[in-house]
């Protein structure tokens, strides 16, 4: 369900990014409680939606997102240009599973560009809980660093427990090691000279970079590696068997918000989610590319095949969870629960 929230502040972060502070009224604060690394969904016209991570710490009483202006962006360009403090936007309660599920003595974080947004929330929460944090932040140059002042404040507040390392791809620094693109080879050198790899790592950035750095960390002995992407190219729909509609199409039963709906997939549907939206337009989704995890559901009976998965952790997959935007039934009947 969307709620109309007032934008209480719009702060310029860089030449192409801003921070939006949202005013959550007292009667919605329990619904909008969040965990570090979670995101909110902003509703646009029709079924258009956009996902933005919260950058504040849980329990802080502040709800803030970072928005990078993108050419042609449905929200980040056209809508954002006209937005003023005091205006309202449609926002769904926080969701997502990226981020620590328990307190750890130390966490390692890697962010690129606007990927700093959920990473900043994780850093704030870990430091406030008494842990230590190592953050590698890749940017073009110092002028492109989002939340530069917030990061400096964290460093001042926790000088012994917050290890912040900036890597600039287009700016020379005193250290050759930290000047250039943060790729697997450079990360290996950083791990060898500056950072201990054997910890839990959380990465947020573009697909190619996150994939390469995650593999580097795993080979270096990282305890665990968790990934979130801020963008992937448009994903093709899930594969459909040639005989998918011989008997009228797969039958799906889905439980959402305590109510069960049954529907049959048609040739016009490209996923389990697409069919559900015909009968339950309030069904949760955002990116429809397998990235945000908003459309996650649990398969209770039958089976599906997922085309892409950039959001679910191995334990979620083992428990039977799938991304319905990327799923197509491989059995005649499928039963799902969004609960």
From TrEMBL:
Q: Does the entry feature the keyword Coiled coil, yes or no?
A: no
Alphabetic keyword roster: 2Fe-2S, FAD, Flavoprotein, Iron, Iron-sulfur, Metal-binding, Oxidoreductase
What Pfam families does its record include?
A: FAD_binding_6 (PF00970), Fer2 (PF00111), NAD_binding_1 (PF00175)
**What cofactor does this one take?**
FAD
Superkingdom to which the source organism belongs: Bacteria
Indicate the segments forming the 2Fe-2S ferredoxin-type domain, all copies: 250-339
Q: Where is the FAD-binding FR-type domain?
A: 1-101
What PROSITE patterns does the entry give? 2FE2S_FER_1, 2FE2S_FER_2, FAD_FR
What name appears for this protein in its UniProt entry?
A: Ring-1,2-phenylacetyl-CoA epoxidase subunit PaaE
